[in-house]
C-alpha cells in the first residue's frame, strides 16, 4: 500500500463522498445551514475529535460535529498532523473511504474551496487516476 500527499479538486470529491451524512458519527445528516448558523453564532468547537471521540456517540454528539465543522469553515484548514486521509480503491463499490478529516472535508465543501490536500492510501496508482483524475501528487 502506498501513502502519498495529493491536492484534489473539491468539486470532484463532493461528487463522490458526503462527509455531512453523519454515518461515521451516528448522528444523522448535518445540514450546511446548521454549520453556517454555528459560524454566525460563534458556536465553534476547538477540541480535536481524537481527544473526545470516546465520550461522544450518536445523536448526543451532533452539536460537537456542527461546531467542529464550523470551526474549520471560519478558520480554514490547518496544515497539521490531522490531515484528511482517504482510502482509494477503484474496484470497491464505494471507491473512496474517508479515513480521517471528515470535519475538515465538510468545511472545505461548505467553504467551496477549490482543492484540498489529502493523504491518499492506495495499492495501485491507476486507482487514483481512475477515481480522482484531478489528483496531483505533492512533493514532500
Q: What's the layout of helices and strands?
A:
Blueprint: E1 2-9, H1 10-14, H2 32-41, H3 49-52, H4 62-75, E2 84-88, E3 96-100, H5 102-111, E4 115-122, H6 125-131, E5 136-137
Parallel strand pairs: 2-4
Antiparallel strand pairs: 1-4, 1-5, 2-3
Helix pairs in contact: 2-4, 4-5
What can you see in these coordinates?
By secondary structure, the chain is of the alpha+beta class. It has one domain. It is 36% helix and 20% strand. It has six helices and five strands, in the order βααααββαβαβ. The protein has a five-stranded mixed β-sheet. α2 (32-41) crosses α4 and α4 crosses α5. It is globular and about 45 Å long. The model has no long low-confidence stretch (mean pLDDT 92).
Top keywords for this entry?
140 residues, alpha+beta, five-stranded mixed beta sheet, 5 strands, 20% strand
- The dominant shape is globular
User: Any low-confidence stretches, pLDDT <50, length ≥5?
Assistant: none
Q: Give the overall average pLDDT.
A: 92
Q: Let me know the number of strands.
A: 5
Radius of gyration: 15 Å
* Helix share bin: 25-40%
The domain count comes to 1
Structural class: alpha+beta
Q: Provide the β-strand percentage band.
A: 15-25%
What gap, in angstroms, lies between the N and C termini? Answer: 18 Å
User: What is the string of helix and strand elements?
Assistant: EHHHHEEHEHE
Going across the biggest sheet, name each strand in turn: 3-2-4-1-5
In DSSP terms (H or I, runs of 4 or more residues), the helix count works out at 6
Biggest β-sheet description: 5 strands, mixed
Amino acid at each position: 500500500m502506498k501513502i502519498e500527499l495529493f491536492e484534489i479538486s473539491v468539486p470532484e470529491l463532493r461528487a463522490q463522498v458526503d462527509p455531512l451524512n453523519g454515518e461515521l458519527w451516528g448522528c444523522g445528516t448535518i445540514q450546511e445551514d446548521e454549520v453556517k448558523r454555528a459560524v454566525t453564532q460563534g458556536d465553534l468547537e476547538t477540541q480535536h475529535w481524537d481527544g473526545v471521540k470516546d465520550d461522544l456517540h450518536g445523536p448526543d454528539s451532533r452539536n460537537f460535529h456542527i461546531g467542529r465543522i464550523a470551526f474549520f469553515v471560519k478558520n480554514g484548514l490547518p496544515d497539521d498532523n490531522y490531515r484528511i486521509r482517504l482510502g482509494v480503491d477503484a474496484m470497491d463499490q464505494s471507491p473512496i473511504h474517508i479515513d480521517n478529516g471528515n470535519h475538515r472535508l465538510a468545511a472545505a465543501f461548505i467553504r467551496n474551496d477549490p482543492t484540498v490536500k489529502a493523504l491518499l492510501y492506495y495499492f495501485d496508482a491507476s486507482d487514483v487516476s481512475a477515481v480522482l483524475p484531478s489528483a496531483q501528487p505533492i512533493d514532500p
